[in-house]
Amino acid sequence: ASVPEEGTLSVSENRTKVRLLQKQVWRKGLVSIRVTKPEGFTFTPGQFVRLGLDIEENGKTEYAARGYSIASVPSDPFLEFFIVEVPQGLVSPRLCALEAGSELWLETDLWGSLLPERLPASQNLWCLSTGTGLAPFLSILRQESVWKKWPTIVLVHSVRLAEDLAYTQLIQKIKDDSSLGGGSGRNLIYIPVVTREATQFLSRRIPDLISSGDLAETAGVKFDSSVSSVLLCGNPAMIKEVRALLKPLGFQAPRRGEPGNLIAENLWQ
Length: 269
Hints:
By secondary structure, the chain is an alpha/beta fold. It is built from seven helices and eleven strands. The termini are close together.
């Protein structure tokens, strides 16, 4: 998830230089980057940090940073981020243009509430994402503790074009290889959604697929608040609509010690 491209979080004093190790270009303007991990730095899957750059404009250098979910797992020797270029954005186009060896800033403050440990165990977990909102789930789904709580997990990734369906090989690996999180008997159901072109995949927005019943039918899993939990990461419109659809079914966020079964994180892009 990320804070708004023109976000107003105060500049962190806790920042350190990191180096770009590797860049994967999924398509123009959609990349994954791996950077060096500062010694002693750790995080909880589902959290995000801010990446910053010193930007030179009109003879002046200014610092700017934006939030990005961590797509790697805590045991990895690097940190990985999934980034889409925001048109006219200040930071994301520059991050997408960086090459291996480049330096950037990592703010070590951790943000975000998309944490599976905030939800009680149940039969199944829905992970609903749009665009680069997939990133935190790549980390979450490689945690053994998550599979112990939810033996069946449905991962939905909705994008505009089929070329935006990144990380399909890793998702297949998580599905097939229980050593990447969880033991035998676990079941990952991956449902890609492509909304702007005709493909073999589901083609309507996530809220429409929920209200029509097509998403539950495709997954073979019902949205049943007595046995299901939901994690949402994506654009604010999708999250608002899905919340409104699921609330009458008994899905609500955890509050003041009361256990909930739905957590959402807005992604701005």
